[in-house]
Amino acid sequence: MAKARGRKSDLDDRLFWMPSEEEIKNASTTDVYFEYAREALRFAGINPRVTMEVFTRKNPHGANWAVVSGVWEVAKLLQGLPVDVDAMEEGEVFLTDSESAVNEPVLRITGRYQDFALYENPLLGFLCQASGVCTKAARLVDLAQGKMIIGFGTRRVHPALAPIVERSSILGGLDSVSNVLGARLMKRSASGTMPHAFILCVGDEAEAWRIFDEALPEEVPRIPLVDTFSDEKFASILALKTLGRRLYGVRLDTPTSRRGDMRKLVQEVRWELGLRGGKDVKIIVSGGIDEKDVLELRDVVDGFGIGTSISAAPVIDFCAKIVEVEDRKTGKMVPRAKRGDLAGRKWVYRDAQTMSDVVRARDTPPGKGYAPLLKPLIKNGVIVRDFVPLEELRERTLSLVKKVAASSPALRWDAGGPQPRAGTS
Fold first, then answer.
1. Do 225 and 126 share a structural domain?
2. What angle do CA 295, 299, 300 make, to 5 degrees?
3. Hey, which end of the chain has fewer CB within 10 Å, N or C?
4. In what order do the strands lie in the sheet with 333-335?
């Protein structure tokens, strides 16, 4: 690799601060204390068979549901290791309960600890980041009530994360995303409008819009930015006059410092366009949009461009904890967990009609109509689950989110002793 002339490179073997796929696969991105633990266990000749569960104790949004994503990448990470893995489906909705000591595992690994100890770090990274983005996207889509949402967020993250941010956004229900590589990897077309920089380079809004119209192929929607030099209302009128029937929509990207009453501003634009034959022109708003803005504007706009609130969404704080360990004397698996965690393997069953779940200490449904959420993903290192295309997963996730958001799902548990009262934890 060529080094900068006249000065020493800050990296010896790469250009950017990012791992290769091989380094992720061989667990080079792990935390060093996992290496210490494995070395010490090897020294002592201790390598028990264990069961480890991945779950979260809290939901960053305060709701009682979230969406798990990153499962398929975990499958590829652990593929070839002598382990068994059961997991929820990619894009599955899972439940949380801040008042309960019991949590739903979204993924479970069984194997000899030394064989997968180093992989705890990367597998949590896959799940936490993707699930956070996917959950935020799903929440926004649910609030938008059918209005279009385009993902604009990858400029706010390290470029190495751009593809997974975009995939997680689409899985969560977004209509489209702007990142070129992210869209290409999903075999989709990227969506976007135009940057302020383009208009500033031309120096005149109307001229810039005409150049854009003449230069770009027909399949690119003509959606001018209408807040570069002048008032959004008058710029929208000018855009209609300039492009006529070729005008698909206008985008208001007004900064917070100049926004004022955004709802009234949108209504002004709608009125003025309608007076001039532009009643079908779409109005897209962007610029710092989050859940509150979607709630306030969803009935007066046609779509949203949402960036930072999705790409910088809080992660789902999954942890991976051992709950069973092979007894060194008897060879039997026995429940064992650290203080504050619940020992023993757990199964999750759902009543699809009510979206209510039961976490059980045994592998039997709690009643008719309940189906397991944890299903085989890997058997002795071999992926045994069929890959489901992203578009099919997206439609399933949209359906699940719509259902759970409209219901009052309960999370119950059954450890084999006295049953908690129905609807409580």
1. no
2. 110
3. N
4. 333-335, 318-326, 49-56, 107-112, 83-87, 375-379, 382-383
Q: Strands of 411-414's sheet, edge to edge?
A: 370-372, 347-351, 356-360, 411-414
**Nearest to residue 73, comparing CAs of 20, 130, 23?**
130
281 neighbors 245 (Cβ within 8 angstroms)? no
DSSP state, 63?
A: S
Where does a domain end: 306, 332, 347? 306
> Model confidence over 337-382: pLDDT tens digits?
999 999 999 999 999 999 999 999 999 999 899 999 999 999 999 9
pTM summary value:
0.94
CATH number of the domain at 46, please: 3.20.140.10
Strand pairing class (148-151; 382-383): unpaired
| 52 sits in which H/E element | strand 49-56
Burial (CB < 10 A; 0-12, 13-18, 19+), residue 389, is: exposed
